[in-house]
Amino acid sequence: MIFHPVLRIATMLVGLFALASVNAEGARTRLKDIIDVEGVRENQLIGYGLVTGLNGTGDFLQNVPFTQQSLTAMLERLGTNIRDTRILIENTAAVMVTADLPPFARPGSRIDVQVSAIGDAEDLRGGVLLATPLKASDGEVYAVAQGPVAVAGFSAQGNAASIVQGVPTSGRIANGAIVEKQVDFEFSQLESLKLALKNPDFTTAKRIEQAIDGYFGQDISQAIDPATVQLFRPVGFEESLMDMVVGIEQLQVTTDQPARIVIDDRAGIIVMGADVRVSTVAIAQGNLTIRIAETPQVSQPDPFGGGETQVVPRTDVEVDAGDQNRLAVVPEAVTLQELVDGLNALGIGPRDMISILQAIKASGALQAEIEIQ
């Protein structure tokens, strides 16, 4: 049996959305997966440095003056004066170095860094990053990065053609930075904590409060707003705050979110939440499609006829006005599966379904928020 591509896509969507609807109903999630503890977070670091050892693919110093200035200053610090010297090397590139400093990172530990060219360098493959201080927003140096740059992309060029795959001007150094300073944060000395919801919601915040109070048997938490639940140390709790957080992380709650449809128009992707509902609505879908095919024919004269070879144009025009499409009624849906079944009954693909969902929303029949990426 042969399936039409549109029907195959529709069948896959029905199965996917049906599974999502079944799993979402009554699903419980660990508190650990839906909250962040205030103060326990990463800190972004940034620095400016030089990558050397490039095979003629670095910055052209006459076009990128800051690379030349940085190279001159670095060599002077190493005891070499080249200020009055004309530099024409192309094996050095100016780069920005970024990293995320994990919470509670101690001096001496290593973190990964990202390196990206900011001049006209063509490729960072084979380059080595020189010692680069990494600073946080407070201006303090928290790590120093250095090491060979690993680049996933590549570029190749000849006299008449060139090819570039990936991004050869950006790379990564695994464990390329050493932490020099830790962020001052005494977690054990806190008397209260604030739990930040990754997906803020009034109902979910209240359920978290109830789950924590039930676990300790006393009112020690309060949902301040949809994104924050404040937690106090229980009366008579003699264990550490670390033990307290470990205990509540494994609590399970049923999350709740507003009905939402996320659409990626470029890729033709539709993701629907389990609570999406639609009122009874009639839908007609059809497009005027015109296909023009050019198949020119070559007219060859007889061997001794004295004629000339000619190309005779031949054009085939096919018009599809969508006459087979009819007005369909999508009844008021109770579940996500019924909504998708009603839309797929029209025999349409994902891209046309995006337009239909937007039209249903405009008519007021769709009780869900549409987010277009």
Automatic annotation (TrEMBL):
It comes from Rhodothalassium salexigens DSM 2132. InterPro entries: Flag_FlgI. Residues 1-20 form the signal peptide. NCBIfam families: PRK05303.1. GO terms for molecular function: structural molecule activity. PANTHER family: FLAGELLAR P-RING PERIPLASMIC PROTEIN FLGI, FLAGELLAR P-RING PROTEIN. GO terms for biological process: bacterial-type flagellum-dependent cell motility. One of its GO terms (cellular component) is bacterial-type flagellum basal body, distal rod, P ring. Pfam families: FlgI. It comes from the Bacteria. This is Flagellar P-ring protein. Keywords: Bacterial flagellum, Cell projection, Cilium, Flagellum, Periplasm, Signal. Belongs to the FlgI family. It is found in: Bacterial flagellum basal body.
